[in-house]
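User: Here's a chain of 70 residues. Predict its fold as tokens.
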Amino acid sequence: MLYVDDNINIVYNIHILGEVGVFDIKTLEMIEGDLPAKGQSLVREWAEKHEDDLLKIWNTQEFRKLPPLK
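Assistant: Prediction complete.
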């Protein structure tokens, strides 16, 4: 889920096996959550691969599913 936080950062939520991470879309840093380092690394890899899609979704507000983490 994409949303704007209180600091006007575009962020997205990731839910993996009951753990949650909130990531800044530009820096790819986890700003909230309890994902372990391996999970954070996988999310960053996924976000880098889908960066254009994430920004397009945000800019157009045309929400759609992206391929899951593998």
